[in-house]
């Protein structure tokens, strides 16, 4: 049904929103292909909701354009836009039953025969038989599905989802993620999904945009962003990274040679976003391997030695903290497929990794420090 | 009730003097104990006088204060009173109804603006709504008498723009009485309405406009139904005293504008015809109750719309 509507990608062009002196969304430009599942990922307060509200028409952009196909909809009233929203708070109408909540959009557009469509939607979100209940009589997960059905029934060109799973517990959230993905591929509508949960973003979306302080830091397929982050912020917001301060010292064929804290490293040139001067040498914790003897490091690998300070057993994996000679703590994740005993805090170990698993990022001004242990969930919970 | 239960259980901590049995008994009687002062007050100053009034409405109509009254179960007082004063009855409901319409037209937007759009001016505006109540009802109505007087600026202005004829007047007309009623009881409508609009979740309005509802449809389908409790309370608080009012007709009207309140007033205080005054009071009470009952029944179903 959605394919009846004219083709149209969503394009945001230099979209900016300021509240007084505060810039909530800063010169944001991006394109979302029709029919794709796009995730906007960022910590709380980075401007995600404001961006969605500008697309939905609930907030006027200070400047910039919102283009759907080749139509600029930035100045249209919300009810004139072929866009629907699943609100962070659901915003179900408490005085209407579930049937009327879902039928609301159709009725406002003067459609009389809504019965069949409403029932189809309710069964799509697996809420058959709940027609006559009031929103207050449903659980959080059910309310969330009503909100989804209420938006989807209008067959918008674009569906905006503002942290729709934020209020659900872990198990229900997993279940709804699967359902959302299923529904998206079934109806073929473009989904713009806002979340602060990096796993959710990577897991669900075709394309992820990482947002920070009103700007997009990086945009791409989940694997591309994860394997080759563009900035220290992305490297630590999407999963974790070990970032080691280093200098570029030269080249060897296709490899960039670096020195950091007295050790020498190599990285393929095509994994480096800076080719001279001060840089961050990054590597993901799960790419590191631990050995107890320096001699056991295979040739051609990058290596860092240190002392184990902490070992956390996390079921599927074990997480080690390795304190280097210069005092930095590196994380190492190893899969528990073959748990090796014998590693206890205080053990002298060497971590090594393949050069093509590292990445090199430019090191900017003094104020730029990579925060090694920022976890988006914790940031959200604190605010 | 749950707060009461909590209170009760706080006293019944193990080892407390009296033991659990006394505590449970206290728990059970506490609500009634709390009801007692109010109930006693109502019994003494409302229920008993009401009975007294009911008895008075059935006194022999030929008695008088000087000769004394006899309770002769004179039910004929009722039809007689109705026959003599039905125009005043009709006028009471007509004027109160017109005033209610005017008050709704002014009060709803006012309450909405204060609740949803006033921002930091909210409290100041609320004070403005309530402030007139700090002066006496009588003084306020007398002030209206000045405003509407024949040589006041308002009548002058209306004559200049030919909305009133050269000898047209406002004072001593039904218009003045309706305006007075509207003004005097407006806060009773605005305050409950404000309270329920204030609680309205603005995000619901955004959701409605996201779901293709224009501003009018959003009002009709979301704002209005959700403000229904305040609207019902406000209209009742406005309409009931306005129907029984006699000050506005007395000060701003002439005997031609008299409402049933004026008749009751004069029956008790001027003509000293207690049986008739009492019968009229009961007729007014039952008429209002009937209107309120019908209204609540209709509004009750409306709410589910
Ligand atoms: N109406 C507003 N007035 C002032 N500041 C606002 C307003 N709305 C949002 N902000 C600010 O803009 C920033 C981004 O908010 P928001 O888009 O809600 O963030 P997110 O959804 O990513 O958590 C926040 O710092 C917030 O305080
Ligand atoms: Mg938000």
From TrEMBL, chain A:
<comment type="similarity">
    <text>Belongs to the ABC transporter superfamily. Spermidine/putrescine importer (TC 3.A.1.11.1) family.</text>
</comment>
<feature type="domain" description="ABC transporter">
    <location>
        <begin position="10"/>
        <end position="238"/>
    </location>
</feature>
<dbReference type="InterPro" id="IPR013611">
    <property type="entry name" value="Transp-assoc_OB_typ2"/>
</dbReference>
<dbReference type="GO" id="GO:0015594">
    <property type="term" value="F:ABC-type putrescine transporter activity"/>
</dbReference>
<dbReference type="Pfam" id="PF08402">
    <property type="entry name" value="TOBE_2"/>
</dbReference>
<dbReference type="InterPro" id="IPR050093">
    <property type="entry name" value="ABC_SmlMolc_Importer"/>
</dbReference>
<keyword id="KW-0813">Transport</keyword>
<dbReference type="InterPro" id="IPR003439">
    <property type="entry name" value="ABC_transporter-like_ATP-bd"/>
</dbReference>
<keyword id="KW-0067">ATP-binding</keyword>
<dbReference type="InterPro" id="IPR017871">
    <property type="entry name" value="ABC_transporter-like_CS"/>
</dbReference>
<keyword id="KW-1003">Cell membrane</keyword>
<dbReference type="InterPro" id="IPR027417">
    <property type="entry name" value="P-loop_NTPase"/>
</dbReference>
<comment type="function">
    <text>Part of the ABC transporter complex PotABCD involved in spermidine/putrescine import. Responsible for energy coupling to the transport system.</text>
</comment>
<comment type="subunit">
    <text>The complex is composed of two ATP-binding proteins (PotA), two transmembrane proteins (PotB and PotC) and a solute-binding protein (PotD).</text>
</comment>
<feature type="compositionally biased region" description="Basic and acidic residues">
    <location>
        <begin position="371"/>
        <end position="383"/>
    </location>
</feature>
<keyword id="KW-0547">Nucleotide-binding</keyword>
<dbReference type="InterPro" id="IPR005893">
    <property type="entry name" value="PotA-like"/>
</dbReference>
<protein>
    <recommendedName>
        <fullName>Spermidine/putrescine import ATP-binding protein PotA</fullName>
        <ecNumber>7.6.2.11</ecNumber>
    </recommendedName>
</protein>
<dbReference type="GO" id="GO:0016887">
    <property type="term" value="F:ATP hydrolysis activity"/>
</dbReference>
<dbReference type="InterPro" id="IPR017879">
    <property type="entry name" value="PotA_ATP-bd"/>
</dbReference>
<dbReference type="GO" id="GO:0043190">
    <property type="term" value="C:ATP-binding cassette (ABC) transporter complex"/>
</dbReference>
<keyword id="KW-0472">Membrane</keyword>
UniProtKB/TrEMBL annotation, chain B:
<dbReference type="Pfam" id="PF00528">
    <property type="entry name" value="BPD_transp_1"/>
</dbReference>
<feature type="transmembrane region" description="Helical">
    <location>
        <begin position="171"/>
        <end position="195"/>
    </location>
</feature>
<keyword id="KW-0472">Membrane</keyword>
<feature type="transmembrane region" description="Helical">
    <location>
        <begin position="32"/>
        <end position="55"/>
    </location>
</feature>
<keyword id="KW-1003">Cell membrane</keyword>
<keyword id="KW-0812">Transmembrane</keyword>
<comment type="similarity">
    <text>Belongs to the binding-protein-dependent transport system permease family. CysTW subfamily.</text>
</comment>
<keyword id="KW-0813">Transport</keyword>
<dbReference type="InterPro" id="IPR000515">
    <property type="entry name" value="MetI-like"/>
</dbReference>
<feature type="transmembrane region" description="Helical">
    <location>
        <begin position="93"/>
        <end position="112"/>
    </location>
</feature>
<protein>
    <submittedName>
        <fullName>ABC transporter permease</fullName>
    </submittedName>
</protein>
<dbReference type="GO" id="GO:0005886">
    <property type="term" value="C:plasma membrane"/>
</dbReference>
<feature type="transmembrane region" description="Helical">
    <location>
        <begin position="278"/>
        <end position="296"/>
    </location>
</feature>
<feature type="transmembrane region" description="Helical">
    <location>
        <begin position="222"/>
        <end position="242"/>
    </location>
</feature>
<feature type="transmembrane region" description="Helical">
    <location>
        <begin position="124"/>
        <end position="143"/>
    </location>
</feature>
<keyword id="KW-1133">Transmembrane helix</keyword>
<dbReference type="InterPro" id="IPR035906">
    <property type="entry name" value="MetI-like_sf"/>
</dbReference>
<dbReference type="GO" id="GO:0055085">
    <property type="term" value="P:transmembrane transport"/>
</dbReference>
